[in-house]
Every structure is written in structure tokens, then in C-alpha cells.
Amino acid sequence: MFLATYAALIALGLILAMIGLMQIGWRIGKKFKVESAKPANVGAIQAAMFALLGLLIAFTFSNGISRFDDRRELIVEEVNYIGTAYLRIDLLPQEAQPEMRNRKSESRQPGRTR
User: Fold this and answer.
1) pTM (global) more than 0.70
2) Do the domain assignments include residue 25?
3) 99 FRET partner, CA 20 to 30 A, in 32, 61, 79, 107?
4) How many structural domains compose the chain?
5) What is the DSSP secondary structure assignment for residue 111, as one 8-state letter?
6) In this structure, are residues 22 and 49 in contact, taking their beta carbons and an 8 Å threshold?
7) In a domain? residue 113
8) What is the pLDDT of residues 74-99, one digit of tens each?
9) 100 or 111, which is more confident?
């Protein structure tokens, strides 16, 4: 959880830094602008920067989605193991089944750690 928070803060910091540095560069360029000079193609530079920013955001979301899918698969796998263990209680002798079912249901109560 903390890693995702740090990644979001880093991405936000990069966004703000890029916008701030673009403003600084624009103001410096406006201050030292020579009238006879040909204007720079600032639009292409901005487009390239925003494209890189878009790629950064896309990779961040892609990584988050893959983690979510992995977590969901692990949960489904664990639920299947719990169900299999509960069904295998039927293979025990009849006198041991009620006690094992009680133990199994106690281990699944919310707030209880393994």
C-alpha cells in the first residue's frame, strides 16, 4: 500500500515539476527574446513532454491493474483451498468430523489471524 502511495506522490511531483519548469523556461525565453529571431516551435516540445507524461501515467495504471488482478487471483486460490480443506473433512472418521468442522469454522472468523 505504501509503495502505491509513494508512486502516486512521485508522479504528482514529476507533473508539477514539468509544468513549473515549462513556465520558468517560457518566462526566461520571453525575457531574453530577440525580435529578429525566428520563434521556437514550443508546441512540439510541449506535445512531446505531455506524451511522455501520458506514458508515465499509462504505465502506472497498468502496473496497478496487474497488481489488482494478481491479488484477486490469490484470493480466489485461497478460497478454493479453504473449500477443498472443508470438503476433505468428510474423509475423516465420523466421530472426528464435527470437531474438525468446528475448528475450521473458528479459524475463518473475522478478525482472527492465522
Assistant:
1) no
2) yes
3) 79
4) 1
5) T
6) yes
7) no
8) 999 998 988 888 888 888 888 888 88
9) 100
User: How far out from the chain centre does Cα 102 lie?
Assistant: 38
How far, CA to CA in Å, does 22 sit from each of 32, 40, 106, 107?
15, 14, 60, 57
Q: Are 108 and 82 in contact (CB under 8 A)?
A: yes
How far is residue 55's CA from residue 47's CA, in Å, rounded to a whole number?
12
Q: What is the mean pLDDT of the chain?
A: 82
Domain that holds residue 91: 2-107
Domain assignment present for 93:
yes
Distances (CA, A) of 60 to 18, 50, 57, 69: 17, 15, 5, 14
Q: Indicate whether 112 belongs to any domain.
A: no
- In single-letter form, the type of residue at position 33 comes to K
Core vs surface per residue 66-80: b (16+ CB within 10 A) or e: eeeeeeeeeeeeeee
Averaged over 47-74, what is the pLDDT? 89
Q: What is the Cα–Cα distance from 19 to 27, expressed in whole angstroms?
A: 12
CA 43/CA 40 separation, integer angstroms: 9
